Amino acid sequence: MIIPVSSMPETWGAVGSAVVTFIFFWDMFRRYCPPELRRYLEKCTSRLSGFLNPYIQISIHEYTGNHLRPHEAYSIVDAYLSVNSTDAKRLKAEMTKENENKLMLSMDEYEKTTDEFNGVQVKWISGKVSPPPRAGGVSYYPEPDRRYYKLKFHKCYKKMMTEAYLEHVIKRGREIQARNRQRKLYTNGHSKSYWSHIVFEHPAKFSTLAMEQEKKEEIVEDLLTFTKSKDYYARIGKAWKRGYLLYGPPGTGKSTMIAAMANLLDYDVYDLELTSVKDNTELRKLLTETTTKSIIVIEDIDCSLDLTGQRKKKEEKPADEKPEKVEKRSSRKEKEESGSKVTLSGLLNFIDGLWSACAGERLIVFTTNYVDKLDPALTRRGRMDKHIELSYCKYEGFKVLARNYLELEAHPLFQSIEELIQEVEITPADVAENLMPKSAKEGPEQCLRNLICILEETKNRKCREVKDADTNDDAAAAQETHAMEISM
């Protein structure tokens, strides 16, 4: 039946009126219908829909536990669909680990694709759910959108899909993950309550670290033993984690050591900036979102926050102090303390408390230039299981740097450097800076001579300082003797 053009406005008016009427009665129903009746009707509607709809849907969300932890199954499905979404029209691209000139494609949001298993077609649908706006305006903890995948299939294939097909997806997805996985460097950035990341491409290896070979082998053995100790940690009743405290003067290679750890174990790195974390609740949220096979790093922990454990004494207010002065001083104090409110207790609870078991196979690494400033509760064994001192460069470390920078295993000038480097304190960073050619004209021998000059200057300066100190001591002793003679 064809509706005349002249009657089209009347038809649309009738449709609009019917829609408005439906919305009115639906609103009245929701407001005044008893909750018990409404739940019963919803249950009946759901049953009727399930009876009429022959398809089953399985949802796999990006996060579990109310956005507390990433869901491993989501990343596996994402990897599987990166090579099994041939009929999807909107795709997103990422670099692959195997070939820098090849892109890995996967479905974009709100896209769908089909897959076939044992002659049965299934449908995958991607989507996301935006978090509801919070009452009261801007939130200190903004939540990102939650993504998900939905698997849709006919109910007569339920057993095949929930057993054989999903097992096939998990197996193939893990294989693709291992082949294309790139290590990532995460950070919480400035005023962020969630992680953002880039690809981690630091080239450091233990073979290039400027330290004693015996010490390197000890650290490598400790790390590899940890990765194989899942059953051991379960048997003794401890969370599968290990704490490392790296300490020493600036320029001794603490950050490079962390990069070498990540490359050795193929772990992701979470660089936690404590000063950007508002309080203990936000800290717990960030740390529970870290994954297994990761290194959680807090660099220069003695400078990040006041985590020494010392408590400031309360200032006694003078009895005659006016209320206006007290108010001004309190407002000034509030401004000074308006930054991060993370406490030592909050940090310890995650390192060694109930929350420490929220994910397994993790390293927690602290670095500091001044280990004596840290509270003993933070550095005790069981929290920081292994203390590694990274000190000044020795001759064995110099040989590693000479091999790295100059490709030299031996040279006549090595003997002079060995004698000098035992008498002075110089960091591996300073040695490396002097071994690096400044121009194409500088050869290995000139670089070694540059280093010798620096070592000799450092030695002479040290001798002058010692001589000046002795002179000052002698002068002080002479003054004291003279004063005693006068008094007598």
Distance between the termini: 132 Å
Q: What is the strand arrangement across the widest sheet? A: 10-9-12-13-14-11-15
Major sheet characteristics? 7 strands, mixed
Overall pLDDT metric: 81
β-sheet strand percentage:
15-25%
Structural features, described:
The chain is of the alpha/beta class and 488 residues long. Helix content is 45%, strand content 17%. Strands 10-9-12-13-14-11-15 form a 7-stranded mixed beta sheet. The chain has a 4-stranded antiparallel beta sheet with strand order 1-8-7-6, covered by helices on one side. Helix 3 crosses helix 4 (158-180), helix 13 packs parallel to helix 15 and helix 14 runs parallel beside helix 16.
Essential attributes:
seven-stranded mixed β-sheet, 488 residues, four-stranded antiparallel β-sheet, elongated, alpha/beta, single chain, 16 helices
Any chance you could write out the topology, listing elements then pairs?
Blueprint: H1 8-32, H2 35-52, E1 55-61, E2 63-64, E3 69-70, H3 72-81, E4 91-95, E5 103-107, E6 112-117, E7 120-129, E8 146-154, H4 158-180, E9 184-187, E10 196-199, H5 213-227, H6 230-236, E11 241-247, H7 254-265, E12 268-271, H8 280-288, E13 294-298, H9 301-304, H10 323-336, H11 344-352, E14 362-368, H12 376-379, E15 386-389, H13 395-406, H14 414-421, H15 428-435, H16 444-487
Parallel strand pairs: 9-12, 11-14, 11-15, 12-13, 13-14
Antiparallel strand pairs: 1-8, 2-3, 4-5, 6-7, 7-8, 9-10
Helix pairs in contact: 3-4, 13-15, 14-16
